[in-house]
Amino acid sequence: MAAPMIAPSILSADFARLGEEAEAVAGSDWLHVDVMDAHFVPNLTLGLPVVQSLLKATDIPLDCHLMIEDPARWAPPYAEAGAYNVTFHAEATDDPIAVAKDIRAAGARAGLSVKPGTPIEPYLEILREFDTLLVMSVEPGFGGQSFMPEVLSKARAVRKLVDAGELTLVVEIDGGINTDTIEQAAEAGIDCFVAGSAVYGTADPAAAVRALRAKAAGASKHLSL
Ligand SMILES: O=C(CO)[C@H](O)[C@H](O)COP(=O)(O)O
């Protein structure tokens, strides 16, 4: 496995200072951007204009997580704007392959996300159409919730396929990741860890990213022993 990646979630940042908040985590692998529409989830955050501004404000690749209805209509513009990853929810569309193809055609990596209660088995066959699988370890909608370890069986199942060479994709986890929970996620084979409150809820977000990366690296190490 490659070195663990950390993606701070700006959901926990100060929305009036997003450029500075991105700067505060400059060493991060991806910057996770939670787009919520108050329909697919009961919360409303930001949309394409803010993403376009963020793209001008930071060099960190943007990892856009669309918690929205109708991704077929709304996801490709995020790719056209220059987002690195555009991830949408399996539960939000009947044709995830078509959405993934459109995202890739528009120049971004395509990601599929599953809520905690959504089984992964029906999607294993189509994961070759994706560059990222985002396993939700809280109910999508809000930061600061408690980690749900029961979702890790999904990560283990997909990790097995990646390690066997049957799939090439980044396995990402989102929700409740902090220095107490990141090791169990790393042991399950997660490549990329989203963390909101554990990064932006601290006085030193850059140090928080380093601490998370070190813990994940320590725990992933014994995977290859
Ligand atoms: O997608 C999300 C919520 O739907 C957030 O990215 C996630 O919850 C991060 O926040 P925290 O690390 O505080 O749990």
- Report the radius of gyration as a whole number of Å: 16 Å
Largest sheet: 8 strands, parallel
CATH superfamily: Aldolase class I
Specify the CATH class. Alpha Beta
Please identify the structural class as seen in this structure: alpha/beta
> How much helix is in the residues?
25-40%
- Overall strand count: 8
Number of domains: 1
| CATH architecture descriptor name | Alpha-Beta Barrel
Q: Give the strand line-up of the largest sheet.
A: 1-8-7-6-5-4-3-2
Helix and strand sequence: EHEHEHEHEEHEHEHH
- CATH-assigned fold name: TIM Barrel
Q: How big a fraction of the residues is strand?
A: 15-25%
Shape: globular
User: How far apart are the first and last residues' alpha carbons, in Å?
Assistant: 12 Å
What's the pLDDT, averaged over the residues?
Answer: 97
Question: Unreliable stretches, pLDDT < 50, 5 or more residues?
Answer: none
The kinds of small molecule bound in this structure are: ribulose-5-phosphate
Q: List the total number of helices.
A: 8
Function: Catalyzes the reversible epimerization of D-ribulose 5-phosphate to D-xylulose 5-phosphate.
Family: Belongs to the ribulose-phosphate 3-epimerase family.
Binding site for a divalent metal cation: 32, 34, 65, 174
Protein name: Ribulose-phosphate 3-epimerase
Please characterize this protein's 3D structure:
- The chain is an alpha/beta fold and 225 residues long.
- The chain has a single domain (5-221), classed as TIM Barrel.
- It contains eight helices and eight strands; from the N terminus they run E-H-E-H-E-H-E-H-E-E-H-E-H-E-H-H.
- The protein has helices at 18-23, 48-57, 71-81, 96-105, 152-163, 182-187, 197-200, 205-221, and strands at 5-8, 31-36, 62-67, 85-89, 109-114, 132-136, 170-174, 192-195.
- It has an eight-stranded parallel sheet with strand order 1-8-7-6-5-4-3-2.
- Helix 2 links the parallel strand 2 and strand 3.
- The longest helix is centred in the C-terminal third of the chain and has 17 residues, at 205-221.
- The radius of gyration is 16 Å and the shape is globular.
- It starts with a strand and ends with a helix.
- The model has no long low-confidence stretch (mean pLDDT 97).
- Bound molecules: ribulose-5-phosphate (5RP).
